[in-house]
Amino acid sequence: MVVFTYDRVDKVAIKDEISYGEENQRLTQENLDLKREIQELRYKLELTTKELRQFNIALKDEIHERTKREEEIKYLSYHDELTGLYNRRYYQETVRKLDNEDNLPISIIFGDVNYLKHINDNMGHDKGDELIQKAANSLKAVCRKDDVIVRFGGDEFVILLANSSNEVAKDIIKRIEKLISSESINNQPISIAFGCYTKEKVDESIENILKKAEELMYEQKIAKKEYVVSFSTK
Fold it and tell me: Where along the chain do its domains lie?
């Protein structure tokens, strides 16, 4: 009886030990599999994170380039490429905003560079471009921060002066003429014909103010015709 009991207990113990060993082996294997899976997931996470960083860098660069292109397009849509001054489109949009009672008096200066055609024909278009650039630089050097300087056409410039009297406009013209007189192209002096007119009443047409400034500019050109002819025959 004692032997039987001993044998039975021993067999049960052995069976329990075997079961425990199998369970422990299973758990060990599952733990190894879990560790391997975690390592694989970490590796995939690192790859994904790296790819996301590269994607974000590429996206940031693309956004920067796109923003830069949009700014360049916007700049070129409102500026003259040769001089960097505003263009006629900008003038048309700006004059509509400024044309109100709060900005009166509004003066407009109309300038036309003399003998550009002669220089283009006899010295080449590079020299003609140089003439336009020197004229533009003189305008920029004299005009105030809030003055709107526009390359209106090939050799035409318009300066829009808000809250500025006709006397102020004439003073600006005198200072530009003084500055431009020191400039030259191939030892030939540079000059600009100017005219200015001022809007003082709300009901006056800003288009007519521009037209009158242009007419006064042509009167000055006619007055200096002998000088222009003399220059063109050299």
Answer: 1-78, 88-232
Helix, strand, or coil (residue 150): strand
Predicted TM-score (pTM) of this structure: 0.73
Output the DSSP codes for 8-26.
Answer: HHHHHHHHHHHHHHHHHHH
Sign of CA dihedral 212, 213, 218, 222: positive
Which CATH code for domain 88-232? 3.30.70.270
| Cα gap 40→46, rounded to integer Å | 10
213: CB partners within 8 A, 6+ apart: 108, 109, 110, 158, 195, 196, 197
Q: Each residue of 93-103: b (16+ CB within 10 Å) or e? A: ebbeebbeeee
Per-residue pLDDT of the chain (234 residues; tens, 9 = 90+): 444 444 555 655 555 666 767 778 888 888 888 888 888 888 888 888 888 888 888 888 888 888 888 877 888 899 999 999 999 999 999 999 999 999 999 999 999 999 899 999 999 999 999 999 999 999 999 999 999 999 999 999 999 999 999 999 999 999 999 999 999 998 889 999 999 999 999 999 999 999 999 999 999 988 876 444 445 444
Sign of CA dihedral 29, 35, 39, 41: positive
Token pair of 212 as six digits:
């009158």
**Which one, of 140, 125, 120, 141, lies nearest residue 80 by Cα?**
140
Query: CA 135 to CA 155: how far, in whole Å?
Result: 9
